[in-house]
Specification:
The chain is about 45% helix and about 20% strand. The protein is an alpha+beta fold. The strands form 2 sheets. It has a 6-stranded antiparallel beta sheet, with helices on both faces. A 4-stranded antiparallel beta sheet has the order 3-8-5-6, with no helix packed on it. Helix 2 runs antiparallel to helix 3, helix 5 crosses helix 8 and helix 8 packs across helix 12.
């Protein structure tokens, strides 16, 4: 299994969290441990050589090979499976506020979505899928995806209605950065004080630009603090006291953790290897 990360082009860096290529000669493990935890990012993916299946909230969604997919920002995990033959995938993970700037559609319409990319990209996504299928190498596909995302970004940013959204996007980007820096421990009332805007207004902006409220995104960032500790190999006993400080109490931590992974913390440590998720987390 090979997972490599590519630095996004300069024009995309404000909007793209990561750009990666995954390849495996034996596909994805046919177990329930291949888990993609929520990280506050929506995604554009193109799998080739093999199809895969996503399982979300008990619902199975078969995604065919050579298909361009869009995964909306999520507040629960996705389990990924495929047959045991060669698979490759190019993935773009947008910053929490990044997809709105490129696609220009309200992100709350895509929250928890796993579907064909033309659901959000229309004719542009169908064209990109056709062109990706004409190429043979991952490098060529990465170059094409970046070029087309820059084209779409420029087209969207040139629209008059989008120019009116720029101040809101800058405000959301500032709030997202503050929440991430504080590992989600920044109270929303402090965001109100820092920005001078009400919680109601911030909720409306976040739902349009991110797809989730500031409170839910903060919960994801709190979880990601634990998830990185796990990916680095730290045992639960070493991190639990620090983790509980991020939550009201142990019960609150366990409840949010189970919502993010479908397991309790002890079940996750005992039963989950999730090498794909571990490598994604340690990029």
């Amino acid at each position: 299994m090979r997972l490599s990360f590519i630095r996004p082009r300069r024009e995309l860096e404000p909007h793209v969290e990561s750009l990666w290529v995954f390849e495996s000669s034996i596909g994805l493990p046919a177990t329930d441990g291949n888990l993609a935890a929520p990280n506050g990012c929506s995604k554009l993916t193109f799998a080739y050589g093999n199809s895969f299946t996503s399982i979300t909230d008990g619902k199975t969604n078969a995604r065919p090979a050579e298909n361009l997919n869009f995964v909306g920002v999520r507040d629960s995990s996705i389990i990924l499976q495929s047959s045991r033959r060669w698979i490759g995938c190019v993935g773009v993970e947008f910053r929490p506020h990044g997809a709105f700037a490129i696609f220009g559609i309200p992100m709350d319409e895509t929250a928890n979505l796993v579907d064909d990319a033309d659901t959000v990209g229309g004719r542009w996504a169908r064209y990109l899928q056709e062109e990706l299928n004409e190429l043979q190498s991952a490098d060529q596909r990465v170059q094409l995806i970046q070029r087309e995302l820059i084209y779409l970004l420029c087209k969207t940013q040139a629209a008059a209605w989008m120019r009116r959204q720029q101040a809101g996007n800058a405000l959301v980007a500032h709030c997202v950065g503050a929440l991430k820096l504080a590992y989600g421990r920044l109270p929303i009332r402090e965001l109100e004080q820092r920005t001078g805007y009400t919680r109601r207004y911030l909720d409306l902006l976040f739902k349009q630009h991110v797809g989730l409220s500031p409170k839910v995104l903060a919960a994801i960032f709190r979880f990601q603090k634990f998830y990185r500790d796990w990916a680095e190999g730290r045992g639960f006993d070493l991190v639990k006291d620090e983790l509980y400080e991020h939550y009201y109490d142990q019960s609150h931590f366990t409840k949010e953790f189970k919502r993010m992974t479908g397991r309790t913390p002890h079940e996750f440590y005992r039963e989950t290897s999730n090498e794909f998720g571990r490598r994604m987390c340690l990029r």
